[in-house]
Task: structure prediction
Amino acid sequence: MRLRDQKRILMAKKAIEKYNNDENYRFLYEHISDIFARLLKSDLEFLNTGQIDKISLAAKWCPSLDSSYDRSTLFCESVARKLFPYDSDAEYRGIEEAHYVYRVRERLRKQVLIPLRKALELPETYMSRRKWDRLPYDRVPAIAMKTYKKLFFKHDPWRICSHLRYLKRTVKPKFNFSRLLPHEILSLLNYAFGEEIAEYHWRRVVEDFSSKGCFHNCISIFSTAPCYNFSNFCYAFSLLTSEFCESPWKGKVAVRNASFDVDFIKIEGEDLRSKLKTLKSHDFICVRVPEILDKVINMALECNLSTDKMIKKIFFFTYSGNSTLWRWKTNESESIRKKFEMNGYVIPDIVCWNLRFCLIPTVELEDDVTFIYGCSNDIFRVFLEGDGNLDPVAIMDVELSVKVLRLIDGDVKPAMGYIYEVMDKAKEQIWKNFNDVQRRYRPILRIIETRWELQLHRPLHAAAYFLNPKFHYDPNFVGNEEVRVGLYEVIEKMCPTALERCRIDLQLEKFDKAEGLFGKEMAILTRTKKQPGPRNLNAKKKSKKKVIEVEESKEIVDVGDDEEDVQEDANDEMILQDDEDDNFIDLDYGDDFD
Result:
């Protein structure tokens, strides 16, 4: 037997031993394979009905058969068994187990992975097969184009150059547009041959916001330096807002001139790189709110502007901890307001955003000026997707999501049993903040729910929420159908025999009515004081039984060290990331990447 075959057999044996002896590993393994099987099954339905745009990337991230990841975990076999169970086809009856496994693995490859990957037209498929001349560049997402562009120029220079020239001269070319934030688009200019890609995406962003009427007649002022994070966001947003203004504000930005007075200067340049160079050539120093408002009203009077062409909103960006430059004195405020009203104008909304404090976003409202502290890509995305309205409540809703994430990562409380309750309350608070107006809170919930559904919304969280005495005996407890379905899914998963499930159901009835030990005085007093945690009552036994037992005020679920599920989405992401290099994308990049 060859050495390679011996190594493969040894890897398979280790995978089987790990699966049989480690309950935590087995639970995570089965959970991840369930996710892949469910997604692949739905993707096949989308493929058969022609709904290609709804197909997920499960086929991309699923390991290829006989890849290094598959050999070390036997993962493809697990997915194949769930897609094609033993009793799903008559041809499997009467055959040996080894033949059954071989057939379902081949079906996974031929009937699932190959058709789905072909439909997705993934660039990695062509790259791994060295078919550079057939690579469909119009299907390459923006981030993939940014990552692989050096390889494209190395192996297929003529076609990639032709494609970039096509993007440059075409107003609305066919392209797989993966939304990049404005400052991420500017970062493309730092790469070789990234200018054409950046120009195209910049046009798309401008067209998108312009069609929605976002940031109409808004200006931005900032003080920044190249060393700061998010300085590119300030540059990018200033360029964007200058595009959406009417004359005399269009294509201009506010700076301090040689006499240290506030002035609006024209952004020179025909392309994105030259415009950015113009911005960086000026000194941007924080100006006080009264100064910019005085300049705005004076320009409006000089040009005899109508009210519809007046500036509607002014954004101040800074990294300085000193916010006194933003505030104005009472006499200044009254004087400027009177000047605007006397000439028939409405004073613009003022938003002052300090990007220095990044831990938790906070919002203050003082003298009709909105003060925002903190920054992150998620906040910027909500800010840009909010139809041009930077609602302070939206930033506070992002803070609610941050609190949920800190609960998951923190050590004060175990996330299991708490995250479900916290997430529901966060959503309810968001609805209240926006007076239940769906149009206003939809962009925020879209971001939150995507991560919640894909990463954290698990039956085990619902079960732990139901079984947590602190929540269960609360008058506001929500034990709806979704929660109970999650609970019973966990019970069915962990308890293979009907007898065990019946015993558990009887205990749940006592728990629900606070009977037996649950009704004892000690249990009642400690419902909100003890923190539920997993307990292994049979640690010395290697039995596969999952015990659910009641003991006063503690959590009544013991599913064999299921605390590992808290780390599930992180482990899931890590495993899938590792698979990219070792399995499906079998590329030898060498020194092609920096």
User: Anything to note?
Assistant: The two ends are 41 Å apart (CA to CA). The longest strand covers residues 313-318. The chain has four domains: 3-120, 134-202, 217-228+239-356, 458-560.
